Amino acid sequence: MTLPADDHVHSEWSWDAAGGSMERSCARAVELGLPSIAFTEHVDHTRSVIPSAAAVPVGFAAIGPDGRFRAPPLDVAGYLDCLERCRWRFPGLRIRSGVELGEPHWFPAQSAALVATGAYQRVLGSLHALLVGDDPWFVGDLLGPHAPAGLSPHIVMRAYLEESLRMIEGTSSFAVLAHLDYPLRAWPHQAPAFDPTTLEQEFRTALRALAASERVLEISTKRPLQAQIVRWWHQEGGTAVSFGSDAHPPEQVARRFTDCQAIAEAAGFLPADDPAHFWCRRRP
What we know:
The protein is an alpha/beta fold and 284 residues long. The protein has one domain (6-281): TIM Barrel, CATH 3.20.20.140. The protein has 8 helices and 11 strands. A 9-stranded mixed beta sheet has the order 1-2-3-4-7-8-9-11-10. The two termini are 22 Å apart.
């Protein structure tokens, strides 16, 4: 079976992809036989708390004078120029422009203005932070040793799904919901394995709202989205899925796609006639 499009890839134009390369990612996509690749670079406005110096990775430069995270802005001109060069160099590969909007419902004016330019073919909505009181925290920090007292992984996951629902209902600026299971990437090793059925209603409520808005659910393959969640998406009326590796270095492009294709097909989604398009709900 032909691999689907990778609709969530980062390159050197994302602030957190020092090892990224648009050109080498395109070469990898060609090597794998992908029909399409989308470079969905980060656009983040959230000024998250950095809990302690111990939690800051070595070389992490996006720290403002107030000690909070501050992402560098996307160099739009440079990014689009690089995109055109890659389209010229890889004419047989469909190369799509894109952005990954962090917490777009918290920044509605900025998000709407960016999307209104029409420059981006794939627009992802992502939630990387949650509010603790009035302060935004990175989800990973809420699951780590520097988290505020009283939080458990289950509480964080529930809060994540509740905020995802607010994001879905609070903005129309994105077309694809990225990594709905994002907290599992930082799930503590000492915590019990996460069972999605313990939060089935929260998952279903978010998925139902996403389906009602006629948007697309991403099957993130960085940590494959659990099959049960994809089945719930189908049951709640979801019409399409995308596949996203969330690759930063080129060698991660299309990782685990074969396994995730099987998950999508078992849930009732099949390739479109154009292999570069989203997988669609199987016709009855």
